[in-house]
Amino acid sequence: MANFSTNQVRHVYVAKAKKTNAAGVTELGDLAVIQAKDEKGNNKKGFYLLTKGHGGLTRSDIVEEGKIEYVGVTTAASMAHKKLKYTLTPSTSTSLWGTGTGNPVKEAFANQDILVRLYFSQYISIGEEDTYMKYGVVHTYTGMTKAQFMQTLKESIDANLSREADKMVDVTINNNVITIAEKEPEWELGTRQQQYTNFRVTASKAEIDGAEIDVFNVDANGNIPSAYDAADVINNSKIAADLEYFAMGDRADIYRNLGWPNVRPSKMLVDANSANGYDMVDIIYYFSGPVEDVQRSRKQMTIICPAGTGAGYKTAIDAIINPTTTTGGGN
Question: Is 115 exposed, middle or buried (0-12, 13-18, 19+ CB in 10 A)?
Fold first, then answer.
């Protein structure tokens, strides 16, 4: 039988610094891609990873050239989650607002309740059947300015969200424009994963002389404008921390928290608060032996490394093996 697992598994190694040889792996988080040798000590087309963790030096499987299916890099930037934002901008309709100081509410628009709804899909349970709703409401009156209208609406949304244990969205106002933005979700290592907020925003319309008029600017489809903000993202640091925690639990920490509270917390290498996130280098390979031992035991190794350094590990692997044997790679 094969001399390592016949199950599909994933081994995770965290690298803080790339080293070029085994002698250089001395500090916590050092990792080197080492060329394998045959029984006579000659170089062969294969490699292994050597890394230093809290438990000392660890060597990965020896990955043989010709048995590698994929080597590729997923960058931290490609894994960053862009925050979803909705913008509530009061319309310029002359049916609603007057031309006086502050654009006051017209008499025809007075004494109406304008409702903004926030729909949170798959909230908590991650099920499509669960939709959680929050609201903001404004009761208009004659002489109410646009600024007063928008400020009252923001305060109403804030009050409706205030009872939640976890803050669900960030609500800000600037120049009479309200922005409702996705907030980085609450997270706890190994127990509460980072689940992004799936929500949408709608608003009721004003009724003027039997006609419905949009109170806020809408897009071509009649919806409140939304966009994913490329300048405001949630990086993958916490996802990387969870991956390390899970993998270590499967490989070397199987009795984690057994006997609680008399436990010794395991030490990890990923910084869940890293501002830049982490690249991930994936190597998919398999083992097969001689003669009747021909089964392919598929495995995957993942190197978690600081953003911008993943390509260097792939280059080191490509320098050892024949690049034509990989079926993927790149960024």
Answer: middle
